[in-house]
UniProtKB/TrEMBL annotation:
One of its GO terms (molecular function) is CoA-transferase activity. Keywords: Transferase. This is CoA transferase. InterPro entries: CoA-transferase_III_domain (IPR050483), CoA-Trfase_fam_III (IPR003673), CoA-Trfase_III_dom3_sf (IPR044855), CoA-Trfase_III_dom_1_sf (IPR023606). Signal peptide: none annotated.
Length: 402
């Protein structure tokens, strides 16, 4: 079941207004919500966040939605109407954080520029996630995560040499932007606490979030003119670290530490390589990486994945199988660390979902509420802002809320 705790979350008392949709903005809201923040998600009346209908649907709603929108309240509010914009400003007047991932200029078009919002709430922390950032010559271009992955340098490195660049398999560009945005929010909240209560704007570009994790890509080009290329499953410049064939699949082996390499070679019966003076360090192993990979592959090829992992575990060599969703759900380690949770939905069924990361000892993240139906919390949130039943009913009749 979802983890619970008697202690308040680390972010209890922090009110977040989420105006984003799909992945990047909402993932940041999800993360803050799991650690105790109150997250009020504003959705457009009608269909709401398109993520409600992405990928596989159960009982009319995406099961992805059940993860992305847990611990959130849904307010169906039309931000294209002046009355809707006024209501949003009232809500933001008492908020701590605003998350948005619209194209630059959208907030300004609704009369909610950072300057305008800080005039009514100087302490507001505003997270803005966009394809190319709020400034620069590309700011007005439409940008999704896949484009950010390409511009950030990641797509060029994925796949087999000489073949088409491939996707990582998930929307990694959006998620990296969300995590960078979350770091920015927490940093800005701390700054606000110790520096007089002033909020600020956090500007995250999708491609910059990807670029930030590209390791030595640019320094190597700057220093040596080297353009790193795709290398399939290998880790260029680090040896041995690759995927190797087994009788029933593939196994990943990372034997690239000096002492680890010697233990690996002993385990596979190639002590001649383990004791070779020129292979005692990484530079020497890189020069002979094809020979080393062939030796490991010759050993793994006739053995099962389980046998290979057992032998390498005894030798204290990092190795692992390539997990599928089935493997993850059946793995006892995932279960032992509460990384697979049973989460009840508002549609009446229970679904297994990922747990909360990272794990805090005193204030662990929790799942306090299931993902909302569109507009589930509209009346309650508006009532908390001081609107009475007649005012709420009039707004609903005008199509401002749902």
């Amino acid at each position: 079941m979802a983890p619970t705790t008697l202690q308040p979350g680390a972010l209890a008392g922090v009110r977040v207004v989420e105006m984003g949709q799909l992945i990047a903005g909402p993932f940041a809201g999800k993360t803050l919500g799991e650690f105790g923040a109150e997250v009020i998600k504003i959705e457009a009346p009608g269909a709401g966040d398109p993520l409600r209908n992405w990928r596989m649907i159960k009982d009319g709603t995406s099961v992805w939605w059940q993860v992305q929108s847990r611990n959130k309240k849904s307010v169906a509010l039309d931000l294209r109407q002046p009355q809707g914009q006024d209501l949003a400003r009232q809500l933001l007047r008492k908020a701590d954080v605003l998350i948005e991932n619209f194209r630059p200029g959208t907030l300004e078009g609704w009369g909610m520029s950072p300057e305008a919002l800080h005039a009514i709430n100087p302490g507001l922390v505003i997270l803005r996630i966009s394809g190319y950032g709020q400034t620069g010559p590309y700011r007005d271009l439409p940008g999704f995560g896949v484009v950010g992955e390409a511009m950030g340098g990641l797509r060029h490195l994925t796949g087999e040499p000489g073949r088409v660049p491939v996707r990582v398999g998930v929307s990694i560009g959006d998620t990296l932007a969300a995590l960078h945005g979350t770091i920015g929010v927490l940093t800005a909240l701390y700054h606000r606490k110790v520096n007089g209560g002033q909020g600020q704007v956090i500007d995250v570009a999708l491609h910059e979030a990807v670029f930030n994790v590209m390791e030595s890509l640019v320094p190597e080009y700057s220093a040596f003119g080297a353009v790193r290329e795709s290398a399939g499953s290998a880790l260029p410049g680090i040896a041995p670290s690759n995927a190797y064939p087994c009788a029933d699949g593939w196994v990943l082996v990372a034997g690239n530490g000096d002492s680890i390499f010697k233990r690996l070679m002993q385990a596979i019966g190639r002590e001649d390589l383990g004791q070779a003076p020129d292979l005692a360090n990484n530079a020497g192993r890189v020069a002979r990486v094809q020979e080393i990979d062939a030796a490991i592959g010759d050993w793994t090829r006739s053995r099962s994945i389980t046998e290979v992992l057992d032998v390498l575990a005894q030798a204290r060599v990092p190795a692992g199988r390539v997990y599928t969703a089935k493997d993850i759900c059946e793995d006892p380690h995932y279960r032992a660390r509460d990384m697979i949770l049973q989460q009840a939905t508002r549609d009446g069924y229970t679904v297994e979902v990922p747990g909360v990361v990272p794990k805090l000892s005193a204030t662990p993240g929790t799942v306090r509420s299931s993902a909302p139906h569109l507009g589930d919390d509209t009346d309650a949130v508006l009532a908390s802002m001081g609107l009475n039943a007649a005012q709420i009913a009039q707004l609903r009749s005008q199509g401002v809320i749902q």
